[in-house]
Amino acid sequence: MITLTNNAVQAVNRFIRGADKPVAGLRIRVEGGGCSGYKYGLKLEDSLAEHDQQVHIGGVTVLIDEASAPMLEGVTVDFVETMEGSGFTFENPNASKSCGCGKSFSC
Question: What is the pLDDT of residues 17-43, one digit of tens each?
């Protein structure tokens, strides 16, 4: 199961409130690329895909495709704000190696 911290839930809800159209949920996926082989993708979706897993966390519906689900098992998503910037970070117990940017990993 994936986890969103309170900061992440608050940030996603801000983005949903500011969206131009209705939002079905936040898609979190894993795709090839990044410094370490895989990278995380986040996107507000207006509809569900046929085989999406849905996880409801603090009023946010998280959508996960079948291929990404095993690599997102146990992941914690946070939203951090620092002097250098703000953004989502991922703590992934499945990763054998992570990039310093916190946005990519390898298994």
Answer: 999 999 999 999 998 876 667 888 999
pLDDT at 101 over 60: no
> Is residue 6 within 8 Å of 58, Cβ to Cβ?
yes
- Token pair recorded at residue 35: 């410094």
Structure token digits, residue 30: 């894993």
Q: What's the number of domains the chain is made of?
A: 1
Residues 25 and 60 sit within 8 Å (Cβ to Cβ): yes
Check the CA dihedral 54-55-57-62 and report its sign. negative
Q: The pTM is what?
A: 0.84
**Structural domain harbouring 24:** 3-106
